[in-house]
UniProtKB/TrEMBL annotation:
Keywords: Glycoprotein, Glycosidase, Hydrolase. It comes from Haloarcula vallismortis ATCC 29715. The keyword Glycoprotein applies. PANTHER family: ALPHA-AMYLASE FAMILY MEMBER (PTHR10357), OLIGO-1,6-GLUCOSIDASE 1 (PTHR10357:SF184). InterPro entries: GH, GH13_cat_dom, Glyco_hydro_b, O16G_dom_2. The keyword Hydrolase applies. This is Alpha-glucosidase. SUPFAM superfamilies: (Trans)glycosidases, Glycosyl hydrolase domain.
């Protein structure tokens, strides 16, 4: 069965982290005019949609995911007029704009929270306040054992109010009370306000956490995020999202992608099936493969496990997939799934192939198209990430670690700052990102890894991305084709086939073979068909023209190949 067509299914999305993209005014922080300056570059990539991380007014405790005014632009990024210009310029280049929607929580600076604190005009009930007990020293005891996504108790005692409020993230990000119909209608009004301004959709932050069960029961203390079984996909999450869609998105030709924590493929289907409230979700199952024992471990991920997660979503989801390997919350993809040393170029191209040839809408993160890597951090003082720094603080306080050196390896790998170092435009000071002092350190490899160098080189990662995005937009089979996993147990080769039952297309059968390893290998791919090379990062050296024997294919380290399959002569 071929999925119904939609523009957002055919789109390739490029994620811009505004703080780190391009600084136009020398204050060290990226901004909207900076993005406008670089829009031609983004358009030249061939992408269709820009997803912009939060640009709303915010004290920036969690880099904009702590919003103090949903209808204003953060001062360091510019003004509403700059934002309107950005929207126009994006549309003028035939691209679309998707904004970040953060409505599980606000900043504690938000007027709603200020009024809630003061118990003004019915606002107390906009957030989740609970009386806790006190211990023998008179200190408040949290009302339940839930923890935050950044570690530590999810409750903070508010001295002014004398009770505690729930925050599933930083203590300055209080959770909104979605049980309150006025909260919901204020949020829907705000969503509608942005849609009416002409945006093309929303990426919805931790959207499956909005419904908390009555009584806020204790969670299983052995879970990495205590309480998650209660607040992920809570009792009314589906109902709230259906209500939201009916009041807002359903009236526009927009796209929605909901970030869903701890979600499996069946539950995701409830949100994204044909009559579900969302178009797509981001799940985390492949992001957790190297941290199955929690944030503080770096485990070796195995390719068969990655394949099995991918294949399950590719084949079992009742709805449309997203395809991503990294974003502003994750390590750099080439450092995590590829090789950021000797095979940086090859593995970055292989990962591009992975992203652009699965079934689902690909989400590319800024800088991956030039193979940006994790950053060598001099010290924890260089880090800005509220998550990593909070976890280190808690571990030091609890005595789990004696000093930072004990945490260094994990923190340097996992810190979200790895994805947030400035975009590397050229080899001038600060990688051409800013004339001032950057808010976060620039990766020292910018002298080699930068856009200008990629533009000047032949066969760069950048040109590979451009060509492959082009190919994807030409080949319906890469968008709408069915997915079939081959060689599920192979330790280093990931092979899959995409087929489209549509007599109108020229290419309806494609084989993708990825050698995700630093070792050359020979592999026999079980397809009975003529295989003609279509695209790849080693084609010149590894194949002759014409058809190719994939039953005995020699693959170079991190080699990626696409073949067109046709009936054997
Ligand atoms: C997910 C966002 O991607 C992340 O950056 C943020 O810290 C949390 N949600 C809380 O909003």
């Amino acid at each position: 069965m071929t999925a119904e067509r939609a523009w957002w299914k055919e789109a390739v999305v490029y994620q811009i982290y505004p703080q780190s993209f391009n600084d136009s005014d020398g204050d060290g922080v990226g901004d909207l005019q900076g993005i406008i300056e670089r829009l031609d570059y983004v358009a030249d990539l061939g992408v269709d949609v820009i997803w912009l991380n939060p640009v709303y007014q915010s004290p920036q405790v969690d880099n904009g995911y702590d919003i103090s005014d949903y209808r204003a632009i953060h001062e360091a990024y510019g003004t509403m007029a700059d934002w309107e210009e950005l929207l126009d310029e994006i549309h003028a280049r035939d691209m679309r704009l998707v904004m970040d929607l953060v409505v599980n929580h606000t900043s504690d600076d938000h007027e709603w929270f200020q009024r809630s604190r003061r118990d003004e005009d019915g606002y107390r009930d906009y957030y989740i306040w609970r009386e806790g007990d006190t211990d023998e020293d008179g200190e408040p005891v949290p009302p339940n054992n839930w923890t935050t996504g950044f570690g530590g108790s999810a409750w903070t005692d508010d001295e002014q109010v004398g009770t505690q409020y729930l925050h599933l993230f930083h203590e300055r990000q209080p959770d909104l009370n979605w049980e309150n119909a006025e909260v919901r209608s204020d949020i829907y009004e705000m969503i509608d306000w942005w849609l009416a301004k002409g945006i093309d959709g929303f990426r919805m932050d931790v959207i499956n956490l909005i419904s908390k069960p009555e009584g806020l029961p204790d969670g299983d203390p052995d879970k990495g995020w205590v309480g998650i079984e209660h607040f992920a996909d809570g009792p009314r999450a589906q109902e709230f999202l259906e209500e939201m869609a009916a009041e807002t998105f359903d009236n526009y030709d927009s796209m929605t992608v909901g970030e869903c924590v701890d979600i499996d493929v069946d539950t995701a289907g409830d949100y994204v099936s044909a009559d579900g409230p969302l178009d797509m979700v981001f799940h985390f199952e492949h992001m957790l493969l190297d941290q199955q024992e929690g944030w503080w471990t770096i485990e070796d991920w195995s390719l068969p496990e990655l394949k099995s997660v991918m294949a399950e979503w590719q084949t079992d989801l009742d709805g449309w997939n997203t395809v991503y390997l990294g974003n502003h919350d994750q390590p750099r993809i080439v450092s995590r799934f590829g090789d950021d040393g000797e095979y940086r170029e090859e593995s970055a191209k292989l990962l591009a192939t992975f992203l652009l040839t699965h079934q689902g809408t690909p989400f590319l993160f800024q800088g991956d198209e030039i193979g940006m890597t994790n950053c060598p951090w001099e010290s924890i003082d260089e880090m800005r990430d509220a998550d990593a720094t909070n976890r280190v603080r808690l571990a030091l306080e609890s005595g789990d670690i004696e000093d930072y050196d004990e945490a260094r390896e994990v923190v340097e790998f996992r810190s979200r700052d790895n994805a947030r170092t400035p975009m590397q435009w050229n080899d001038s000071r600060n990688a051409g990102f800013t004339d001032g002092d950057p808010w976060i350190q620039v990766n020292p490899n910018y002298e080699d890894v930068n856009v200008a160098a990629a533009e000047a080189a032949e066969d760069s990662i950048l040109s590979y991305y451009r060509d492959l995005i082009d190919l994807r937009s030409d080949l319906d089979v890469l968008v709408y084709g069915e997915y079939e996993l081959l060689l599920p147990d192979h330790e280093t080769v990931y092979a899959y086939r995409r087929t489209l039952d549509d007599p109108a297309v020229d290419v309806d059968d494609v084989l993708i073979v990825l050698n995700i390893s630093p070792t050359a290998t020979r592999v026999s791919v079980p397809v009975e068909a003529e295989a003609t090379p279509l695209f790849g990062n080693e084609l010149d050296t590894a194949t002759e023209s014409g058809s190719h024997d994939v039953t005995d294919a020699a693959l170079q380290p991190y080699e990626a190949r696409l073949y067109e399959l046709s009936e054997q002569q």
